[in-house]
C-alpha cells in the first residue's frame, strides 16, 4: 500500500486496466419488461462499438448469462454477432446465470446458478473465468470453495467488507472454511468508480450530454488518490460503467487525454482476466482473509432486506425444497424403475426460480409491480415440480385400476426424499374409494403384510364430488383446506352422516407411524385384511388444558402466553419462550430503523387455549393492542387508530409434537396487523454463551455477539444475522436450536445477566423502496424514493409462519440437529393409489448414513445417464463419506460443480462409493449404475 503521509507524492499506478461494463438489474425500479427494452438498446450499442470503433476492444456484460438470454429472446438475429465477439474475447459473459443475493438463497441454488449460466455461455462461445459478483449485498464464507469447485480462481466484488480491508488491501486471498482460496479484488470506489467519464453526473451517460474531457481527467486524478491508499501494487482496475449503462462514449478520445495527462501511466482497454493476470504476476495479493463478508465499512450492506417482503422469502424456501424433492423422486424412478428423466422440465423449473434470485428481486427492495411479477415465476416452478412428482408417484401406485372393482384396494405411496432411513409420523387425508366401508374395520399394512400403527383422527361423509382429486394432492393441510371450503359452502347438501355411507364418500384423516427406506418409496395398503404381525403402538403425545408432551419434552403455555419447555432427558427447563415483540419501523425496504415504543406480548390477553388431544396439538390465541402505523408528519411517532384507539391484533399459535421427537413445531398466523413495524418471536435466556451458530451455505457460521466498532462505517452494523435452515445457541451442557422455513433473519438476544437467546423476524412492513431520513443508514438513500404500499404486508395477512424448537444436550452436531432440521423441512411425499399395478419398493436406493455429512442434491448428470450426488462435511475434521447404492455400481468419479470429472473414486465391493471430504468440504460425485442389475426385485 502506498504512503499516504502528508507531503508524499500522489499515487500514480504503472498500469490501469479500464474495463467497460454495464451492471444490469433485471428488475428494480422498473419491471423486467421495461428494463429489457433498454437492454436491447445497450446490447446493440455494445455490438456496434465492438465492430465499428477501433478504440473500443472489450465489454463485460455483467457476469450474468441471463442478459444474453433476455436479449436474444426478442433479438434472435444478434446471436451470431454475439457468438463471434464472445469467441474472440471481445465480449465477456457469465459465468453466472444471474447475479443473486447470496445470503437469501440456498447454497444449492448458487450451484445451479453457476451450472445454468456456464451452460448458456458455452453455447455462445464460452464463459469468462472470473468470479464476478459486482453488487450482491454481502458474501457467505463458502463462496471461495464454490468458485473453486466451479473452475474459478478469482472473486471481484464491491460490498461486504469491515475494517479487514485496512490490513489486506484491495487485492488479497480469500479463504473458505475448507482452505480453498481465490484471488479477491475489492473494487475501489465500487463497480461505478470509472463510470460516465466526461460527465458532471454519471447518470448523464444515459443522455445525449456531450463528453467533457477535463471532467474525465479530474475524476481519474481524484480516483488515483482514493485507490492508492489500499492498493498493494502498481496495476489497478477501473470499472468503466454502472447500472444499465451503455458503452462509454468517445472512449478513444478519453483514453488519449488520460495518457497525455498521466504519461507515466499505461491505460489499456481491458478485461478482468487480463487485469488478474497482472495482479498474480505482480504478486500483489499476499494477505489471507477468512470468513464471510457481511459488513458496511465502505458500502451499504443493506441488511434489512433479509426481512423485507417476507412472503417472497417463504415462497422461495418452498420452491427450493420442492425442486430438491422432484429431483430426488425423478432420480429414483429413473435409475430404479427405468422412468424417463424429465431433464428439460426440471431445468425450466430451476430457471424460473433463479429469475427471482437477483438481489433486487429476492431481497424485496423493488417496486410493487416487480414483486407481483415474481409470484407467477414461483408458481410456475412449484406447480410444474409438484405435477412431475405426482406423475412419478402415480407410476409407483396408480390412482385407478384396470378394472373398477379393483379400485377398492387403497394404497398409500410414501416417498422418502432423504438419503437415510427414517420413521415418521405422517398425517394424510384419504378418500375411501368404495362406498359402505366401515373405517373401524380397516388396518394399514406394509408390503410384508405387517401392521403399520395408524389412528383415525377425523372422519367425514360427503357427497361424491370429483372436481378435486384429493388423492394426489401432496400437502395434507391443502387437502383439509380444500375439503373445508366445500363443507362450508355447500354444507346442507354436501355434508352427510355415517348413515349415508352406502352412497357418500368417506374421508379419513389418518395419522400413521411409517418406517421408510432411504431415498425410496414404501407402499402401504389400507385393508380389512388381518395383519401378519401386529406391532406395538408407539408412545403417544399427551395434551392437557395448557400442556403438551411426549417422552422427550414437556411444553406449558403460561398465563402470559409464553412457553416453558422441559427437556426430560436433561431436566433442563427454559421459560419465557415465544414472546412476541413488535417495534415500529421508520426505515425502508433496504433497512430497518426502530421507532418506539417497542411492545411485547408479555401481559397481553391470552384469549383462549384449545387442547386437541386427538391431533396432538395445543392451540392458543393472543390479543395484542398495537399502534396502527407511523405518523408521516413525525416519523418518530407511532400513530394509533383513527379514533386514537390501539388496534387489536389476533395472533394464533399452534404447538404440535410427534412421538419420541424433541422437535416442538410452532405454527403462527394472525390477522389485521399494523403498518410500519417489525414483528419478532423471542426465545430469551437459553444459555450462557457469546456466540450464535447459524446455518449458512454448506457451512454453519459461528458468529460472535460482540459486533466490531463501526463508527467509521458507511453503514453501522445491524443487530441481525442471515441464516438458512436454523440457528443455535449452546453452552457446555447443551442448548436450543430454532428451525425455520423461509424466515432468514435472526438476532442474538443478550441479557444484562449474561444469558443468550435468539429472536426470529416474522415480518417487517414498510411503505417505501428507499428513504434518506433515518439513522440506521446514516440518512442516505440506497435507491429511488418510490412508495411501495404492498411492502406493508397487505398481500400476506393470512400467511403461515413455521418454526420449531429443539432442546438438546452436548454439542449440536452430536445431537443431530442437522438431520432433525432436514426431516422437519423435508417431510415424506404421499399420494393415494390402488394396489392394481403398484410397483413394489426395492428397499434402500441411496444411503448416506453419516449424520455429519449432509446431502444437498440427488439428480441425473446434465449430459450423461449417471447419478450425481452432492454433499458437504459439517465438521472441521476430514472424514470419508460412504454413498451406498442398492443397485450395483460400475464406476464413480469426483466431479466439480459443473459436473466435469476430476478423478476416480474408490468403489468398495459392488455398492459402496468412498468419498474423501476435507474439513467443511463440498464434494460432488458422479456414479454409474449397472443397467443389467436386478435391484430389489425390480427389473431394470
Shape: globular
Give the termini distance in whole angstroms.
65 Å
Order of strands, widest sheet: 25-26-29-30-39-36-35-32-33
Briefly note the structural class of the backbone. Answer: alpha+beta
Low-confidence stretches: none
- Percent of sequence in beta strands: 25-35%
Radius of gyration: 29 Å
Mean pLDDT: 94
- How many separate helices? 16
Profile the largest sheet.
9 strands, antiparallel
Number of strands: 49
Helix content: 10-25%
If you had to describe this structure to a student in words, what would you say it looks like?
By secondary structure, the protein is of the alpha+beta class. A nine-stranded antiparallel sheet has the order 25-26-29-30-39-36-35-32-33, with helices on one face. Strands 24-23-31-38-37-34 form a six-stranded antiparallel sheet, with no helix packed on it. It has a five-stranded mixed sheet with strand order 4-5-7-6-10. A hairpin with a 5-residue loop joins β37 and β38 (756-765).
Describe how the helices and strands are arranged.
Blueprint: E1 15-20, H1 32-52, E2 59-60, H2 66-74, H3 79-88, E3 91-92, H4 107-123, E4 131-133, H5 143-149, E5 154-157, H6 165-168, E6 171-175, E7 181-186, H7 213-228, E8 235-240, H8 251-261, E9 266-269, H9 272-282, E10 288-290, H10 310-337, H11 343-354, H12 359-362, H13 368-396, E11 410-415, E12 422-432, E13 443-445, E14 454-462, H14 476-489, H15 491-494, E15 495-496, E16 505-516, E17 521-527, E18 542-543, E19 547-549, E20 553-557, E21 563-567, E22 572-577, E23 579-585, E24 594-600, E25 605-612, E26 617-626, E27 629-631, E28 634-639, E29 647-656, E30 664-671, E31 677-687, E32 691-695, E33 700-704, E34 721-722, E35 726-730, E36 734-740, E37 745-750, E38 756-765, E39 801-809, H16 817-825, E40 829-834, E41 846-847, E42 853-860, E43 867-873, E44 879-885, E45 889-895, E46 901-904, E47 906-908, E48 912-917, E49 922-929
Amino acid at each position: 500500500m502506498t504512503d499516504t503521509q502528508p507531503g508524499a507524492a500522489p499515487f500514480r499506478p504503472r498500469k490501469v486496466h479500464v474495463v467497460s461494463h454495464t451492471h444490469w438489474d433485471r428488475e428494480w425500479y422498473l419491471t423486467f419488461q421495461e428494463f429489457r427494452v433498454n437492454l436491447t438498446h445497450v446490447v446493440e450499442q455494445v455490438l456496434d462499438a465492438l465492430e465499428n470503433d477501433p478504440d473500443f476492444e472489450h465489454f463485460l456484460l455483467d457476469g450474468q448469462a441471463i442478459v444474453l438470454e433476455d436479449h436474444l429472446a426478442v433479438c434472435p438475429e444478434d446471436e451470431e454477432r454475439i457468438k463471434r465477439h464472445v469467441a474472440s474475447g471481445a465480449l465477456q459473459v457469465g459465468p453466472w446465470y444471474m447475479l443473486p443475493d447470496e445470503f437469501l438463497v440456498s447454497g444449492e441454488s448458487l450451484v445451479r446458478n453457476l451450472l445454468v449460466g456456464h451452460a448458456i455461455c458455452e453455447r455462445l462461445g464460452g464463459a469468462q473465468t472470473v468470479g464476478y459478483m459486482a453488487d450482491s449485498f454481502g458474501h457467505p464464507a463458502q463462496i471461495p470453495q464454490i468458485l473453486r469447485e466451479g473452475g474459478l480462481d478469482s472473486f471481484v466484488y464491491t460490498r461486504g467488507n469491515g475494517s479487514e480491508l485496512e490490513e489486506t488491501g484491495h487485492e488479497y486471498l480469500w479463504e473458505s472454511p475448507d482452505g480453498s482460496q481465490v484471488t479477491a479484488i475489492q473494487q475501489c470506489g465500487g463497480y461505478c468508480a470509472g463510470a460516465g467519464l466526461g460527465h458532471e453526473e454519471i447518470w448523464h451517460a444515459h443522455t445525449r450530454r456531450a463528453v467533457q474531457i477535463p471532467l474525465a481527467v479530474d475524476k481519474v486524478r481524484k480516483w488515483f488518490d482514493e485507490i492508492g491508499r489500499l492498493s498493494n501494487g502498481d496495476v489497478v482496475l477501473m470499472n468503466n460503467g454502472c447500472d444499465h449503462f451503455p458503452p462509454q462514449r468517445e472512449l478513444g478520445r478519453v483514453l488519449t487525454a488520460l495518457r497525455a495527462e498521466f504519461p507515466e501511466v499505461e491505460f489499456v482497454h481491458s478485461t478482468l482476466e487480463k487485469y488478474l493476470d497482472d495482479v498474480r504476476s505482480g504478486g500483489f495479493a499476499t494477505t489471507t482473509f477468512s470468513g464471510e463478508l457481511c459488513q458496511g465499512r465502505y458500502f451499504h450492506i443493506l441488511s434489512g432486506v433479509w426481512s423485507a417482503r417476507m412472503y417472497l422469502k417463504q415462497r422461495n424456501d418452498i420452491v427450493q425444497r420442492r425442486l430438491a424433492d422432484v429431483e430426488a423422486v425423478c432420480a429414483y424412478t429413473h435409475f430404479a424403475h427405468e422412468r424417463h428423466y424429465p431433464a428439460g422440465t426440471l431445468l425450466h423449473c430451476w430457471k424460473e426460480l433463479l429469475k427471482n434470485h437477483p438481489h433486487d428481486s429476492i431481497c424485496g427492495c423493488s417496486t410493487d409491480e416487480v414483486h407481483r411479477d415474481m409470484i407467477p415465476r414461483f408458481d410456475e416452478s412449484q406447480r410444474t415440480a409438484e405435477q412431475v412428482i405426482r406423475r412419478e408417484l402415480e407410476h409407483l401406485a396408480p390412482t385407478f385400476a384396470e378394472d373398477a372393482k379393483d379400485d377398492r384396494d387403497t394404497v398409500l405411496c410414501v416417498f422418502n426424499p432423504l438419503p437415510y432411513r427414517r420413521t415418521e409420523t405422517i398425517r394424510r387425508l384419504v378418500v375411501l374409494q368404495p362406498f359402505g366401508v366401515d373405517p373401524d374395520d380397516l388396518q394399514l399394512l406394509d408390503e410384508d403384510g405387517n401392521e403399520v400403527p395408524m389412528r383415525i383422527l377425523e372422519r367425514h361423509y360427503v357427497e361424491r364430488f370429483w372436481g378435486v382429486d384429493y388423492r394426489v394432492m401432496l400437502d395434507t393441510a391443502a387437502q383439509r383446506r380444500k375439503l373445508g371450503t366445500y363443507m362450508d359452502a355447500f354444507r346442507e347438501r354436501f355434508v352427510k352422516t355415517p348413515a349415508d355411507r352406502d352412497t357418500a364418500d368417506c374421508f379419513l384423516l389418518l395419522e400413521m407411524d411409517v418406517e421408510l427406506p432411504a431415498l425410496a418409496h414404501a407402499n402401504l395398503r389400507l385393508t380389512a385384511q388381518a395383519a401378519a404381525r401386529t406391532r406395538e403402538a408407539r408412545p403417544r403425545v399427551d395434551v392437557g388444558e395448557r400442556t403438551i408432551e411426549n417422552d422427550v419434552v414437556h411444553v406449558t403455555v403460561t398465563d402470559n402466553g409464553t412457553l416453558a419447555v422441559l427437556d426430560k432427558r436433561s431436566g433442563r427447563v427454559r421459560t419465557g419462550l415465544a414472546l412476541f415483540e413488535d417495534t415500529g419501523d421508520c426505515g425502508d425496504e433496504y433497512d430497518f430503523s426502530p421507532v418506539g415504543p417497542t411492545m411485547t406480548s408479555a401481559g397481553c390477553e391470552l384469549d383462549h387455549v384449545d387442547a386437541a388431544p386427538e391431533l396432538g396439538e395445543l392451540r392458543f390465541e393472543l390479543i395484542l393492542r398495537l399502534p396502527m402505523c407511523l405518523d408521516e408528519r413525525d416519523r418518530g411517532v407511532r400513530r394509533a387508530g383513527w379514533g386514537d384507539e390501539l388496534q387489536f391484533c389476533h395472533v394464533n399459535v399452534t404447538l404440535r409434537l410427534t412421538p419420541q421427537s424433541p422437535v416442538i413445531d410452532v405454527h403462527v398466523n394472525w390477522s389485521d396487523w399494523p403498518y410500519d413495524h417489525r414483528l419478532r418471536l423471542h426465545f430469551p435466556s437459553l444459555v450462557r454463551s457469546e456466540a450464535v451458530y447459524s446455518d449458512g451455505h454448506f457451512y454453519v457460521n459461528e458468529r460472535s455477539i460482540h459486533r466490531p466498532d463501526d463508527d467509521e462505517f458507511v453503514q453501522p452494523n445491524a443487530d441481525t444475522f442471515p441464516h438458512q435452515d436454523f440457528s443455535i445457541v449452546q453452552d457446555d451442557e447443551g442448548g436450543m436450536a430454532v428451525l425455520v422455513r423461509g424466515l432468514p433473519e435472526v438476532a442474538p438476544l443478550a441479557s444484562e445477566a449474561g444469558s443468550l437467546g435468539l429472536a426470529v423476524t416474522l415480518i417487517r412492513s414498510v411503505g417505501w423502496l428507499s428513504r434518506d431520513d433515518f439513522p440506521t443508514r446514516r440518512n442516505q438513500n440506497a435507491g429511488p424514493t418510490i412508495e411501495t404500499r404492498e411492502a406493508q404486508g397487505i398481500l400476506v395477512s393470512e400467511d403461515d409462519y413455521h418454526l420449531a424448537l429443539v432442546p438438546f444436550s452436548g454439542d449440536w452436531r452430536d445431537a443431530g440437529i442437522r438431520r432433525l432440521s432436514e426431516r422437519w423441512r423435508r417431510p415424506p411425499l404421499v399420494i393415494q393409489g390402488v394396489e392394481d399395478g403398484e410397483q413394489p419398493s426395492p428397499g434402500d436406493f441411496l444411503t448416506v448414513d453419516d449424520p455429519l455429512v449432509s446431502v444437498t442434491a440427488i439428480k441425473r448428470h446434465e449430459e450423461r445417464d449417471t447419478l450425481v450426488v452432492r454433499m458437504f462435511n459439517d465438521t472441521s475434521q476430514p472424514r470419508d463419506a460412504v454413498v451406498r447404492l442398492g443397485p450395483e455400481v460400475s464406476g464413480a468419479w469426483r466431479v466439480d460443480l459443473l459436473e466435469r470429472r476430476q478423478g476416480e473414486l474408490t468403489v468398495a465391493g459392488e455398492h459402496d462409493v468412498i468419498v474423501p471430504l476435507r474439513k467443511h468440504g463440498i464434494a460432488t460425485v458422479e456414479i454409474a449404475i449397472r443397467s443389467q442389475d436386478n435391484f430389489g426385485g425390480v427389473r431394470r
